[in-house]
């Protein structure tokens, strides 16, 4: 079997690497010629630790090819993974236009049996929709199967997560598709779930929404911790020792961002409304998350008064460390609000860049953390890059006009920072 991956973003590029690592011949297809050109040279168009080296290795060996020629690629491959984006539409529903395009491309170009596997995160019922789109575009009635195989990797940890997944979920009603996928994933040692396509699709949304719920719960709890003079990290440590709760996703902070949680929670809410089963808990999860960054701003205002004309150093732009992804990044929301309140922003992030420089003319983009701190009246830490934990904060204080520190990721130790003379506040981590 040879494998075609449609879409070479985070998921597509990682999936291509995974199958090449397992010894399969893989082709990555994208409509973006610039991305394909870079990938052909073994270079990635986004930041993901460890992935570029593995892609380059397989490009050199010839096991991994890249193309923009959709028709030839589809005709030449037996198994096709759809890994295109499914962003949110303004009304909160998932936008399936890229999935539809990919399905219709497959239908038009197919020349024999194909196994089509949807790895993109798609609303419940999409597998049936993909079948219909393929069928309606077919020139001849070739047989095909469509399976759902949701992806659970995290950005920043994509290589590790994709090569050693916790589980493989396959949604299909076809024995042939199940056999082929078992062969493709033959070298993986992890639990398998083979189920109905709809169940597979829902497992993905239910997982992301549950993790988002954990985060919003901890963010609410952190505010109570501030009132009670209790440290939320110690509370999380105590809770996490209970195996029924587990230690992960209990970090309070500025809220969740990224290309997945915000859109996936929103889509699940929309699905539940369509079926008149309103998942009300998720409305609260989203509301808490929307307002979370403002909690830190309130603390800054309480200390500094009006932010107008104040120089604020913002450390971190990416929605989380080890990625350059700024989709739905709380830091961006923070910067927008600071600018609205007429503060001057000095920004530093090790890899992420502002989306559109012309809308952010008033932001001074700095190439070191020290440069961002220079003359600032407050620091707002928005992404927990390791570099910030390793900075010599005693020395760095000299760059600041005022040593006010607002830690949006509870990264630093309150006692140590205060010992160095900082006015330090965080999100439930002050005591
Ligand atoms: N980013 C993650 O960490 C992650 C993890 C798990 C699941 N997912 C899901 O996987 C899907 C892809 O996410 P992503 O972050 O990789 O998206 P992305 O936006 O980074 O990449 C999508 C790619 O698809 C390409 N594309 C669009 N239409 C195409 C077409 N018709 N033919 C060929 N290429 C086409 C785009 O040019 C782009 O390069 C989404 O549904 C997402 O929710 C993402
Ligand atoms: O305790 C925590 C854990 C995470 N976050 C935030 O939550 C967001 C998402 O983080 P993470 O889940 O690590 O990153 P993603 O790459 O968005 O991965 C999520 O979304 C992917 C796309 O669906 C899924 O595949 C992954 O399983 C799922 O973890 C980030 O803004 C984090 O800062 C917190 O605030 N507190």
TrEMBL record:
Associated pathway: Nucleotide-sugar biosynthesis; UDP-alpha-D-glucuronate biosynthesis; UDP-alpha-D-glucuronate from UDP-alpha-D-glucose: step 1/1
Swiss-Prot/TrEMBL keywords: NAD, Oxidoreductase
Gene3D superfamilies linked: Cytochrome c1, transmembrane anchor, C-terminal, NAD(P)-binding Rossmann-like Domain
Signal peptide segment: none
First-tier enzyme category under EC: oxidoreductase
Domain of life from the UniProt record: Bacteria
Reaction catalysed by this enzyme: UDP-alpha-D-glucose + 2 NAD(+) + H2O = UDP-alpha-D-glucuronate + 2 NADH + 3 H(+)
Occurrences of domain UDP-glucose/GDP-mannose dehydrogenase C-terminal (ranges): 313-414
Family from the record: Belongs to the UDP-glucose/GDP-mannose dehydrogenase family.
PANTHER family on file: UDP-GLUCOSE 6-DEHYDROGENASE TUAD
Protein name: UDP-glucose 6-dehydrogenase
């Amino acid at each position: 079997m040879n494998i075609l991956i449609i879409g070479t973003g985070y998921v597509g590029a990682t999936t291509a690497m995974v199958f090449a690592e397992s010894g399969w011949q893989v082709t990555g297809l994208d409509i973006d010629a610039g991305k394909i050109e870079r990938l052909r040279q073994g270079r990635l168009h986004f930041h993901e630790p460890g992935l570029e080296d593995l892609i380059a290795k397989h490009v050199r060996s010839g096991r991994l090819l890249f193309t923009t020629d959709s028709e030839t690629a589809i005709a030449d491959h037996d198994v096709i993974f759809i890994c295109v984006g499914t962003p949110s539409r303004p009304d909160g529903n998932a936008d399936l236009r890229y999935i539809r395009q990919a399905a219709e491309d497959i239908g038009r170009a197919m020349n024999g049996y194909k196994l089509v596997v949807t790895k993109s995160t798609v609303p419940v019922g999409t597998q049936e929709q993909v079948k219909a789109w393929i069928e309606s575009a077919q020139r001849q009635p070739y047989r095909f199967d469509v399976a759902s195989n949701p992806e659970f990797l995290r950005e920043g940890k994509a290589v590790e997560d994709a090569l050693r997944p916790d589980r493989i979920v396959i949604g299909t009603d076809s024995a042939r598709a199940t056999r082929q996928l078992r062969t493709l994933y033959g070298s993986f040692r992890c639990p398998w779930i083979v189920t109905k396509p709809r169940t597979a699709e829902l497992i993905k949304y239910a997982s992301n929404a549950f993790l988002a719920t954990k985060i919003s719960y901890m963010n609410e709890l952190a505010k109570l911790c501030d009132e009670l003079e209790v440290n939320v990290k110690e509370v999380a440590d105590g809770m996490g020792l209970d195996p029924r709760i587990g230690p992960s996703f209990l970090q309070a902070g500025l809220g969740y961002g990224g290309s997945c949680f915000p859109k996936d929670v929103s889509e699940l809410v929309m699905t539940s409304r369509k079926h008149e089963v309103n998942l009300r808990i998720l409305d609260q999860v989203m509301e808490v998350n929307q307002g979370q960054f403002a909690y830190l701003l309130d603390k800054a205002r309480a200390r500094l008064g009006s932010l107008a004309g104040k120089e604020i150093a913002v450390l971190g732009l990416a929605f989380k460390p080890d990625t350059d992804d700024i989709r739905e990044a709380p830091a961006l929301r923070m910067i927008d609000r600071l600018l609205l309140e007429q503060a001057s922003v000095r920004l530093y992030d090790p890899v992420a860049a502002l989306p559109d420089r012309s809308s952010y003319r008033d932001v001074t983009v700095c190439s070191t953390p020290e440069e961002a701190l220079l003359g600032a009246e407050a620091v707002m830490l928005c992404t927990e890059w390791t570099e910030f934990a390793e900075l010599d904060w005693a020395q760095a204080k000299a760059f600041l006009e005022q040593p006010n520190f607002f830690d949006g990721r509870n990264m630093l130790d309150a006692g140590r920072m205060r010992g160095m003379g900082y006015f330090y506040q965080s999100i439930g981590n002050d005591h």
